[in-house]
Design a protein that fits this description.
- The protein is built from nine helices and 14 strands.
- Strand 6 and strand 7 form a beta hairpin.
- Helix 1 packs antiparallel against helix 3 and helix 1 runs parallel beside helix 4.
Length: 299
Amino acid sequence: MLLAVAALLCAALMAAHARIPNGIGNLGSLFQTLLPWTVLSVPVLLVLSALCRSRLAAAAALVPAVVWVTLFGGALTDKRSVGGDLTVVSHNVDEGNTDPVGTARILADAHADVVALEELSQRAARVYERELAPAYPHHAVIGGVGLWSKHPLKDVEAVPIMPWTRAIRATAQTPKGPVAVYAAHLASVRVQPAAGFTTARRNEAARELAAAIRAEPSPRTVVVGDFNGTYQDSALAPVTSQLRSAQRESGDGFGFTWPAAFPVVRIDDILVKGMTPLSSWNLPATGSDHLPVAASLRL
């Protein structure tokens, strides 16, 4: 009986994940960040049911399975299609990356129209400027964030989401008209025994970014970067409620990006409005602890 109750509780938590409060240790955000991995509860419950020889518990274990498939079944299908007018790449290149040259070459091999880089050091920025220059005649770097583009960039400016520059905006003058491009690196989060899931600075940065997006006059906008949170995290709703995830609409699988050696969460994303994502994918691993992400968009 206890196993059956546990199974139903798991299902309820999955179904109501957006309503789990953040009042204590930001448990709601932490649960939503790891939400795809709740599927592991199903085999555990089934094994325990078999050991207890409980048909009731085994039947109840199927309830979280049904809820999980309802939430994520679409992510397991390949929604990618060919074509597109604008290909965008985003990568947290990692300030401690010891191979910026190799990283730049992997990014250049994607033949994207726009490349956004986050967590740039001054020294690494010079390397990326040199290595990407042959393919990208237009670029801008402010603070630790940069944009490289095959199309002219206008109206480049910092977006004040934190006391130091962690986001920039520019207008890419594409052959099919202007596109507003934002590259952002929200504040880091940590799991600490005393404080729980520390997200206050990230959430504040998200609200500032959301305000900038809300005020954006361009009908076509792409927002990329390291959000230090997933699309499911309701604390990031000020941003995600205004935009659509290219991975969710046109990817294959979950597209986890961090940590690069064994990705378990997708905290790097490409979000759009006024455009149609046709394909979304991850690039090969670089010297960073994040995987690069890419998307092809129809304007």
